[in-house]
Prior knowledge:
Layout: E1 6-17, E2 24-35, E3 39-43, H1 50-58, E4 65-70, E5 79-82, H2 94-104, H3 109-122, H4 138-152, E6 156-160, H5 168-185, E7 188-193, H6 196-199, E8 204-209, E9 212-213
Parallel strand pairs: 3-7, 3-8, 5-6, 6-7
Antiparallel strand pairs: 1-2, 1-4, 8-9
Helix pairs in contact: 2-3, 2-4, 3-4
Bound molecules: adenosine-5'-triphosphate and magnesium ion (MG).
Protein name: ABC transporter ATP-binding protein
Keywords: ATP-binding, Nucleotide-binding
InterPro entries: AAA+_ATPase, ABC_transporter-like_ATP-bd, ABC_transpr_LolD-like, P-loop_NTPase
Amino acid sequence: xxxxxxxxxxxxxxxxxxxxxxxxxxxxxxxxxxxxxxxxxxxxxxxxxxxxxxxxxxxxxxxxxxxxxxxxxxxxxxxxxxxxxxxxxxxxxxxxxxxxxxxxxxxxxxxxxxxxxxxxxxxxxxxxxxxxxxxxxxxxxxxxxxxxxxxxxxxxxxxxxxxxxxxxxxxxxxxxxxxxxxxxxxxxxxxxxxxxxxxxxxxxxxxxxxxxxxxxxxxx
Length: 220
Ligand SMILES: Nc1ncnc2c1ncn2[C@@H]1O[C@H](COP(=O)(O)OP(=O)(O)OP(=O)(O)O)[C@@H](O)[C@H]1O
Ligand SMILES: [Mg+2]
């Protein structure tokens, strides 16, 4: 695999919610190329469009104008998104939640749970395996959501404020787990964050302001 293979490319990709007077432009014509080996932090204030940009990259939202092109080599399960908000399935325990994408991808329950346990261990959440989402804290749920993506070993990991609800030590552990997993599997990693210390651990930093992805040199 060439080191600089393009996984996702945004070409003037814009995302507008609502219409007419109610329209909110969450992302203005963004141009961005994510290649294998990418270690990108997207920083910016609340409401600047970070989650919207990740959702465009993930294919969760279709651009209102412009294009988002994903490499065919990614396949169906090539992108893993760690959601910013609650995303665990309430009826499944933490282990079953983390194993679910692998089960859906056709792995046996045993193999899926083995990978899920290893991923939970990486983020320091192994002891939560048997708990239901309602029995864990928001920060613990965030770690379980990160483990669910790591278990899947995607080629592109998109993590939306993965340390947002964590204390410093736990946040460091989750970020370590994301970086380690990305290094080990050769995955690209994009992390959104408010935290300059988190952003500093990624190789490239881009800022968003009012829906605009600023050019690299405009980093503040
Ligand atoms: N589903 C939606 N419907 C309408 N407006 C939305 C929707 N999702 C986001 N927005 C708006 O789009 C803009 C960008 O939101 P987004 O969630 O991308 O920001 P963010 O940078 O991730 O913020 P935060 O740091 O608080 O997570 C905001 O003005 C927000 O209110
Ligand atoms: Mg957000």
